[in-house]
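2024-03-11 09:14:02 INFO worker-7 job=invfold-0412 stage=load source=structure_tokens
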């Protein structure tokens, strides 16, 4: 299961519609704002966390912003 979680994290954090890069600004899902402490343990930044999984690294000095969470993802279809 750990390998599956790792793979899905890598896939998500490399998708341009999930991590939106606009010059020196990076937009992340609002989940990263809500659960910031889960991603920034050991004095790491959100950019550090994201870069652990990205093939194309973000600039370490990127400003982080958030886009609204898509609640429709939780709907039963």
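2024-03-11 09:14:09 INFO worker-7 stage=emit residues=77
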């Amino acid at each position: 299961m750990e390998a599956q979680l790792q793979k899905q994290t890598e896939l998500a954090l490399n998708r341009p519609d999930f991590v939106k890069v606009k010059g020196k600004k990076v937009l992340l899902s609002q989940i990263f704002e809500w659960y910031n402490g889960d991603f920034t343990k050991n004095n790491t930044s959100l950019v550090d966390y994201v870069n652990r999984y990205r093939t194309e690294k973000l600039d370490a000095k990127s400003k982080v912003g958030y886009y609204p969470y898509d609640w429709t993802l939780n709907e039963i279809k």
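2024-03-11 09:14:09 INFO worker-7 stage=report msg="Helices lie at 2-13, 30-34, 36-39, 46-51."
2024-03-11 09:14:10 INFO worker-7 job finished
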